[in-house]
Amino acid sequence: MPRFSIIVPSHGVAGRLSQALDSVLAQSFGDLELIPVCDGPGTPAADVAGTYAERDPRVAPVHSPPSAGLSGARNAGARAASGAYLLFLDGDDLLLPGALAALDARLAGTGDVDVLYFGHERAPWWEGEPTDPVAPLLAGAPDGAFAPGRWPRLTGVPLPAFSAAYRRSFVTGHHLAFPDGYFTDLGWGGLATLAAERIAVLRRVLVRHRLRRQGSRLNLPGGQQRDLLDQVDLVLTRAAERQLAADRARPLFEQLFAAVLKTASRPERLPGGHRAFFRRARRLHRRHRPAGFRPPAGRLGVQHRLLAAGAYTAFRALRAANRTAARAAERVPRPRMLRTRLRYQTLLRRPLDARLAVYCAYWGRGYVCSPAAIHAKARVLAPHIRSVFLVEPGQERTLPPDVDHAVIGSRRYWEVLARAKYLINNANFAEGVVKRPGSVHVQTQHGTPLKTMGVDQSTYPVVAAQTGSFAKLLGRVDRWDVNLSSNRHSTQVWERAFPGSYEALEYGYPRNDVYCTATAHDVARVRRELGVPEGVTAVLYAPTHRDHHTGFEPGLDLAAFCAAAGEDVVVLLRAHYFYDRDPAAGGDPNGRAGRVIDVSAHRSAEDVCLAADVLVTDYSSIMFDYANLDRPIVIHADDWEVYRETRGVCFDLMAAPPGPVTRTPEELARVFRDRTYAGAESRALRAAFRERFCQFDDGLAAERVVRRVLLGEPPEAIPPVIPLAERLPAPAAATLARS
C-alpha cells in the first residue's frame, strides 16, 4: 500500500496537466500513486495521462464524465485509491518540491491522524506576490495531534480540499464523499472536520494554487450560486445531528455565512434570483444560528443582522452605499482604448450585419493562410455571407480579382470592422477594434508551436522585450470566441500560452487542406511556376526567425550544399515571412542564383511545399504543415542549444524529430548523397511525428469551420476527422516517386 494517493482532476486544464503531474512525480519521496482523473478515453487530458502511465507504473488514470463535475472526479479518484492518505491536487496546480517528504515526516511525528491540514499559496496568474491565506488560522493551532474541539476555528470550511491530507480509512469508514454541485470544497471541508477525531497541522506551504486568468467559476453569475446554500445547509444539518458543542458550532456558522453574505452582497452573481437567494439564506440563518451567537463587528456584523431580520431593501441599500464609495475612489481618469476613427465609434452603435464576414492574414499581407482557405470555402457553402479581406496599402494587387477587400486604415476598413458579425484572422486585429456583443472572432493561428508563445515567453528576456505588453496581448485574446487547433499538442499549448474563455476547435488548419486535396497536376503546375527544372529533386530550405538576430541569415552556403548534395538537387529558399521583403532575402519572388531559387516572396507557403520533394528546416513550424504531405524532412539544428535557451521551446525536438538531424553542413550534404533522408529510419521517424502532429489536418478543416461558425451547425453535424491511415496526401513529383 503506497503512503500517499494523489488525485488530480483534469477537466478543462489539459494544457497545464503535465506540469501538475511532473510536480508529483519529481518528489523526493516516491512512495505514492498518482491518479489523474480524465473526462474519458481519447480526450486531451486522457492522452496526457496515458503518456505518463506508459512510462511510470505509479500513474493510474481513471475516468469521470464532465457531467459529474469536480466532485464526481474527486470521488472517482478516491474510490480507485489504495494509499494510506489521500491528497487532492487540482490539475493546474503544483505540489511544491519536498512536499511529500514533509508530510511523511509530520505524520511520523503526530502518528495517524484523520486529517492533516497544511498551507497553500495562492499564486496570481501573472503579476503579484503569492499569499498563504490559511497561515494565520494554522498558526494558532496546537503543535501536536489534537481533537478538533481544542481549536474550534479550524472548521475545515476556509480550507480547500488541496490544503489537507486525509486518512483513507477515515474517509471510507465515515462514507465521506464530495457533495454534488458547486462549492463542493466547502461542503467536504465541513463534513470532514465534523467527522474527524484527531487532526494536526503542518505550518508549511505544500501546494501552489495557480489562479486562473478567467477567475474562479464560483464567482460567475448563474444558478450555480444557489448550490452554496445547499452546501451550507448540508454541513449545518450534519452539525446539528452530531449535537456539536456551542464553542465549535459558532465558528462553523460564522465561517459558512461569511461565504453566504459575500455572495448575497453581489446581486450581479444572481441575475433574476437575488431576492429568492436572500430569503432562503435568511431561513437557514434563523434555523441554524447557534445559541449565544454574536455577529462579528463591522460591516459583516451589520449584514448578519439585516439578513436575520429579513431586511432585503436595507441590505441592498447598504450594498449600494458601499458601491458608491468604491466608485468615488475610482473617479481618477484612466486611459481608455484609442478610437482612431470617429466614424468607427459612431458605427459601433449600429446593428451588426449578420451577413458580413471580415478576413485578415498576417496583419494584412495578402490573401493567404487559413483565412483565405476559409474564405474560399465560405463562398461555396455560405454564399449568402458577404466577405471582405483586409490588406495593407499597396497589397491590393496580390488579391484575386474577384475578392472584395478593404485597405487597412481606410474609411471602409473601420466600417466593416464595426458592422461585421464574423471576424477571422490568423494573427490579431488592431488594438482599437472593439469586441461587440454578438460578434464572433475566429483565431485560426498560423502554425503548430515548437517555440514558446504568448505569456510563456515572459521568462525569455530577448523575446519578452520584443513582444511588448503582455496585458495588451491578453486584451486581444479576450476578443477570441473560437481558436483553431491542428493537434492536441497545440490545444494544450494555446490553453497555457493564451489563457482566455474562447472555445478550442480541434478541426485542423484550413490552410493545410490543400495537402490532401491537391493533385499531381497541381504539383506539376506549381513547380513550373517556380521554375523548378524537370527531373531534379527540389529541396525546400525554410529556416525560422531568430529573435537574437537583427536580419535574415541563411545559415547555410546553399550553393556549396547543392554542389555537395548532388547534381540533381536544387534548393527552394524560403525565408521567414518577417524577412520576405528583406533585401538580404532577395526581392524577386522567384529570383535564381544558379541552383538556388529564392521563393521567399511567393505568396503561398502551401504552393512552395507542394513543389518540394524534401524539406530542410531548423525549428520552423513549416515542418508540421509539410509533414501532412508525408515527404522526407531533415532537421538542420546547428544552434539548437542557443535557440532553446534564448527563444524557449514547448518540447524537445531532438528527442522526437520528423527525420534525420544534422549539425554541420557536411552532415547535411551526406544524408543527401547517401539518400538516408528518404530511408527506412527516416520514414519511421516521420510516421511517429505525423501521428502526433497531423491529427486533424485531413482536408476538411475549412469546411468544418464554415459549417460550425458561419452556418451555425451543431457539433454532431460537423464532418468527423478522417483517420491518418485513410488520407491520401498530394503526390510528390515523379522523380521522388521513382526513387
Task: Explain this structure.
The protein is of the alpha/beta class and 739 residues long. The strands form three sheets. The chain has an eight-stranded mixed β-sheet, with helices on both faces. Helix 8 (227-241) runs parallel beside helix 10 and helix 20 packs across helix 22. The model is unreliable at 328-339, 578-593 and 735-739 (pLDDT under 50).
Q: Any chance you could write out the topology, listing elements then pairs?
A:
Layout (H helix, E strand, L loop, with lengths): L3 E6 L4 H12 L6 E7 L5 H12 L6 E2 L5 H12 L4 E4 L5 E2 L3 H12 L4 E9 L11 H5 L24 E4 H6 L10 H12 L3 E12 L16 H15 L4 H19 L9 H15 L9 H12 L2 H18 L12 H6 L5 E8 L8 H13 L4 E6 L13 E3 L3 H9 E6 L14 E4 L17 H7 L2 H8 L4 E3 L3 H10 L5 E3 L8 H4 L2 H11 L6 E6 L15 H8 L3 E5 L17 E3 L2 E3 L6 H7 L2 E4 L4 H5 L6 E4 L3 H8 L13 E2 L2 H9 L6 H14 L7 H10 L23 H5 L1
Parallel strand pairs: 1-2, 1-4, 2-3, 6-8, 9-10, 9-12, 10-11, 12-13, 13-14, 14-15, 16-17, 16-20, 17-19, 20-21, 21-22
Antiparallel strand pairs: 4-7, 5-8, 6-7, 18-19
Secondary structure: helix percent: 25-40%
How large is the share of residues in beta strands? 5-15%
> What's the helix count?
28
- Largest sheet, spatial ordering of strands: 3-2-1-4-7-6-8-5
Write down how many β-strands occur, each being a DSSP E stretch of 2 or more residues: 22
The low-confidence parts are: 328-339, 578-593, 735-739
Q: What class do helices, strands and sheet pairing give?
A: alpha/beta
Averaged pLDDT, please?
A: 89
Sum up the overall morphology in one term.
Answer: globular
Q: What's the N-to-C terminus distance?
A: 58 Å
What is Rg? 30 Å
Q: Could you give a short account of the major beta sheet? A: 8 strands, mixed
